[in-house]
């Protein structure tokens, strides 16, 4: 059963002669236990697709359904609560709080969402799997790009969301770390039955995907299995 659906989504930016059709009649769904990639070059609409899916942007037309609730029909307060309890974001900008240590970034999540998060044991296992267990007393400014990326992933997954939306989660990682992160997202889907949607241009992640879509010029299409090995 789909936990997130996009129905006939269109998104425009600008007006008049400068109007740009960023997303065109997008239809998409993800079930629990699926890891889905959406691949495409820069400027193809990947990030817009992801932020609309997670309710951070509103579409110009169409409907987003999360956990059987139409996001556009919710009040802002209920929409924020739906995101908080059901959707985890790993955004390309990382969005770490610069004056909080890594452990405090996680503690902050616990204050905002006090229930339903990973246990201490599960969190420690996650930090170890990501190779950042020794960084908990570091500030974001003391981390490399790859370390910052992995902390952002840990922060999103600590909240234990049913839906994980990731924007270029391996952009700053070397091949060994890409494999580790790919395995982690695959485990989230297979073992923990999360719906994981990753937008990326990193073809190294295709080996872990159950489905791969291509987005080009704002249009989305499912790539056939033979195409994912290109």
Main β sheet profile? 6 strands, mixed
State the CATH architecture.
3-Layer(aba) Sandwich
Q: How far apart lie the N and C ends? A: 30 Å
- SSE order in H/E notation? EEEHEEHEHHHEHEEE
Q: In one word, what is the shape?
A: globular
Please estimate the helix content. 25-40%
Q: Total number of β-strand segments?
A: 10
CATH H level: which superfamily? P-loop containing nucleotide triphosphate hydrolases
What is the domain total for the residues? 1
Do you know the CATH topology?
A: Rossmann fold
Structural class: alpha/beta
Rg, nearest Å: 17 Å
How is the largest sheet built, in terms of strand order?
Answer: 6-7-8-3-9-10
Percent of residues in beta strands? 25-35%
CATH class: Alpha Beta
Mean pLDDT: 90
Number of helices: 6
Q: Which stretches are low in confidence, meaning pLDDT under 50 for 5 or more residues running?
A: 226-230
Structural features, described:
The protein is globular. The two termini are 30 Å apart. The model is unreliable at 226-230 (pLDDT under 50). It has a single domain (2-224), classed as P-loop containing nucleotide triphosphate hydrolases (Rossmann fold, 3-Layer(aba) Sandwich). The strands form 2 sheets. It has a 6-stranded mixed beta sheet with strand order 6-7-8-3-9-10. A 4-stranded antiparallel beta sheet has the order 2-1-4-5, covered by helices on one side. The longest helix has 16 residues, at 175-190. The chain has 6 helices and 10 strands, in the order E-E-E-H-E-E-H-E-H-H-H-E-H-E-E-E. The protein has 230 residues and is α/β, with parallel strands linked by helices.
């Amino acid at each position: 059963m789909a936990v997130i659906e996009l129905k006939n989504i269109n998104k425009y930016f600008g007006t008049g002669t400068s109007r740009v059709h960023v997303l065109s009649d997008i239809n998409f769904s993800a079930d629990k236990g699926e890891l889905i990639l959406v691949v495409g070059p820069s400027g193809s609409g990947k990030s817009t697709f992801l932020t609309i899916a997670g309710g951070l942007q509103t579409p110009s037309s169409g409907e987003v359904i999360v956990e059987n609730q139409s996001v556009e029909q919710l009040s802002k307060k209920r929409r924020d609560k739906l995101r908080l309890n059901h959707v985890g974001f790993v955004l390309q900008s990382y969005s770490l709080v610069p004056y909080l240590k890594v452990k405090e970034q996680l503690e902050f999540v616990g204050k905002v969402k006090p229930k339903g998060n990973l246990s201490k044991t599960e969190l420690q296992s996650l930090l170890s799997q990501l190779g950042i267990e020794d960084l908990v007393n570091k500030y974001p400014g003391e981390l490399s790009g790859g370390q910052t990326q992995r902390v952002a992933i840990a922060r999103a997954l600590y909240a234990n969301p049913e839906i994980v939306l990731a924007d270029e989660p391996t952009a700053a990682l070397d091949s060994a770390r890409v494999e580790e992160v790919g395995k982690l997202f695959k485990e989230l889907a297979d073992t923990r039955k999360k719906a994981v949607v990753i937008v990326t241009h990193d073809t190294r992640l295709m080996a872990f995907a159950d489905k791969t879509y291509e987005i080009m010029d704002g249009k989305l299409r499912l790539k056939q299995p033979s195409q994912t090995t290109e």
